[in-house]
Amino acid sequence: MLDIGTGSGAIAIAICKKTKKNINVLASDISPQALNVARKNIATHKLLSRVTIVRSNLLANIDKVPHIIVANLPYVKEKNARGLADPKLALVGGKNGYELIFNLLEQIKEKKYDKKTRVVFLEIGHNQARVIKKYATVLFPKAKITSKNDLAGYNRLITIEY
Questions:
Q1: Regarding beta strands 68-71 and 2-4, do their DSSP bridges make them parallel or antiparallel, or are they unpaired?
Q2: Distance from first CA to last CA of the chain, Å, rounded?
Q3: How do beta strands 25-29 and 2-4 pair?
């Protein structure tokens, strides 16, 4: 499994804790500071044998094609980033908030990951489901593309199944 935008490593850790021991995770992030935090958290949970960390801008430094991709990329609009606690790099996904997600989808298509990867999970902004699903449908017309609500009732997850 590939965890893109791992940040603190929380998703990689949770998946390893909740799944069988044969699932390994490649956790990537563009931020060296985030990867240092992830490395410490992964070590604290004694998962260094199951989680590999790599610095990568989306799929740029990813050599292996994963069966599952999860991505928690920045999805905040540039104009909404003022006053937020986390670093801008961790929050802002571009002018409209979904540009990084679009870039990832384009890279999945370009690298032909959609031929080998079984499913992609994308965390998204609460008002981005329609535009991201539409874009994903253009790139992956044969895929089953769905959105799911969070506990507050907002569409916050896009699933792309091949």
A1: parallel
A2: 15
A3: parallel
